[in-house]
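request received
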Amino acid sequence: LAKTTQPISMDSYEGQEVNITCSHNNIATNDYITWYQQFPSQGPRFIIQGYKTKVTNEVASLFIPADRKSSTLSLPRVSLSDTAVYYCLVGDMGSGNTGKLIFGQGTTLQVKP
Amino acid sequence: GAVVSQHPSRVICKSGTSVKIECRSLDFQATTMFWYRQFPKQSLMLMATSNEGSKATYEQGVEKDKFLINHASLTLSTLTVTSAHPEDSSFYICSARDLRTVAYEQYFGPGTRLTVT
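response:
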């Protein structure tokens, strides 16, 4: 399983765009990149998943360069409710694999008014 | 996204007793579920992979006789903490793979807070 490295913490203000970058230098060919959000005393919530280039959904965008050794989660116009821990995970999600995910330390995002 | 539930949401038990936590996939079948524990201010630690119809696979350092896992159906996995002690107090979270999605996305339950007194 590829190891990931993220900033431990980030601060932002309401209405700003937040970009959290994750490094995964040892990503394997079959690995997908997945981001989760976790609030205190709750289970992680799936945000977005991608394999290459750019993925966008209603809450975030995920940018993955051609070499796939890093990825950036972009949260547009954050609000106070986006204060949470964000985890970047890398793993082979194929049916022949267990899909096991190993969590790193995550990035604690603090959004200020 | 898919929904995963856990029961109970919190439980308090006395030292030496056993506690069972249920994890259910509500709108999809899950041949594989995972169990994690999380201590305050720390990340999630994978404990074991629960496979429907077969034995669970435990991560290194996790006592399989203490944390009994049963995955008897495609929508239910249970974690039993046997002879619980105060150091087992933690937040236990399960997840399940949704094989209907392109990349077999994994969804997490809301967690169970276990306090052993």
